[in-house]
Amino acid sequence: MPLRGGGSRARVYGRPLRAVGSRRAFPLRAAVLQLRETVVQQKETLGAQREAIRELTGKLARCEGLAGGKAPGRAASGKDTMGDLPRDPGHVVEQLSRSLQTLKDRLESLEHQLRVNVSTAVLPSDFREVLQRRLGELESQLLRKVAELEDEKSLLHNETSAHRQKTESALNALLLRVTELERGNSAFKSPDAFKVSLPLRTNYLYGKIKKTLPELYAFTICLWLRSSALPGIGTPFSYAVPGQANEIVLIEWGNNPIELLINDKVAQLPLFVSDGKWHHICITWTTRDGMWEAFQDGEKLGTGENLAPWHPIKPGGVLILGQEQDTVGGRFDATQAFVGELSQFNIWDRVLRAQEIVNIANCSTNMPGNIIPWVDNNVDVFGGASKWPVETCEERLLDL
Question: Which tens digit of pLDDT belongs to each residue from 44-72?
C-alpha cells in the first residue's frame, strides 16, 4: 500500500543540507532565510505524515471491528467495502499495525530532526563558527561606534562650551566698546571737562539731559559749540513739553539764519558759528515783554523783544542735544540735526549780567548753571554720539 508523503523525506533532509552546504560563504541574512525555508518544509512534511497516520488508524479500527464480526460493511457479492484491503481481517490488522509503527517511527524521527535543526540552525559546524565570529565582530564594531559617538559628544560639548565662552567674551568686549563710544572717555579731569560729539547728520545721533526744567519766567542758556556743517549747523538743542514741541529751540536750518524759538515764536539771531572753530554762545530771555539778548564769544551781537511775551516756560519737558523734537523726546528730522561738537551746556533761571557772560567766555570764571549744570552724570548719549575729554578754553585759545 503506498504511503502519503513518503517520497518527501529525501527532499526534506537532502535539499536544505545541499543548499546550505553550497552557501557556506553567504552572509548571515541568506543563512537565516534558508533556515526559515527548511523549517517550513519540515513542518509541512510532519503535517502530511500526521494526516496519513490518522487515516490508517481509522482503517485499522474498521478492520478490527470487521474481524470481530461487528462491522456490517459487505455487499452481497462478497467484495470488501474498504476497497483495496484484503479480505482476511487478520492480515489487514497486521499490515496496518506495521505501517502505523513505521509512520510513528518516521514521525518521531522528523520531530527529533526538527528540534535538532532549530537548536543547531541546520548549519555545518564551520559555518556556525563563521557566524559566531561574524556576530562577535558586529558586536565589537557596535561597541566601538558607541564609544566613538560618546567621544564625539564629549568633544562637541567641549567645543560648544569653548565657542560659547569665546562668543560671550567677544560680545562683552563689543558691548564695552559700544559703551565707551556712547559715553566717551569717562576719565575726565573734572566732571565738566568733556564734550559731546555728533559727527553725522542723522535722526538717531543725539544727547539727552537727564534733568528737566522747572517753570521759568526768565533764563540764560550758554554753551560752547564747534561746527562747519553747511548749509546750516542744525539744532544744537531743543526743549519740548506736552502740547508744545518748540518750547525752546535753537536752530540754523538750511540757508536761514540762526533762530531762537520760544513757544513756537521765532526771533532771528545775528550769530555766525559755522567756521569749524570753538565759539561760546549765550542767549538770555525774560517773559516780561519777551526781551532777548544774543552773545557770541562774550560779545553782545543782538537784542530784541516781543518774543513770546508773558509766557512762562512750561516745566517737565525733555532737553535734547543735537536734534529738533517734533514730539516730546522723539520724531527727529535728519535735515535739522546738529553736526559738530557741544560742551558746557548750562542753564540759569535768571538773566545773567553781561560781565558774567564775558567772564565765562574768556574762561576767567567757572560758573555752572543753577538749573542745568554741565556734568558727566547728567548727560546721556545715543545712536553713536560720544563723549570725549576736552578743555574748551584751551582749545579755544588754539583756535585764535
Answer: 777 777 777 777 777 667 766 655 554 44
Q: Does residue 231 have a cis peptide bond before it, meaning omega lies within 30 degrees of 0?
A: yes
Please report which helix (H) or strand (E) contains residue 223, including its range: strand 218-226
Residue 359 has phi, psi (to 5 degrees) of: -65, -35
Instruction: Give the pLDDT band of residue 180 (cuts 50, 70, 90).
Output: low
pTM value is: 0.55
Determine the 3-state secondary structure of 69 from DSSP. coil
* In the predicted structure, residue 126 carries a pLDDT above the cut 90: no
Nearest to 195 by CA among 344, 41, 359: 344
Query: Cell for 395?
Result: 582749545
Between CA 43 and CA 106 the distance in angstroms is 13
* 221 vs 223: CA distance, rounded Å: 7
Contact 263, 287 (CB under 8 A): no
The kind and range of the H/E element at 16 are helix 9-21
Instruction: Report the alpha-carbon distance of residue 299 to residue 280 in Å, rounded.
Output: 10
Continuous segment of H or E residues that includes residue 304: strand 299-304
Is 186:324 a contact under the CB 8 Å cutoff? no
Closest CA to 239 of 190, 308, 293, 301: 308
Higher confidence at residue 187 or residue 22?
A: 187
* Beta strands 259-262; 206-209: pairing state: unpaired
In this model, does residue 16 exceed pLDDT 50?
Answer: no
DSSP letter string, 308-377: STT-PBPSS-EEEES---SBTTB---GGGB--EEEEEEEEESS---HHHHHHHHTTS-----SSB---GG
- Over residues 355-387, the pLDDT tens digits come to 999 999 998 888 999 999 999 999 999 998 999
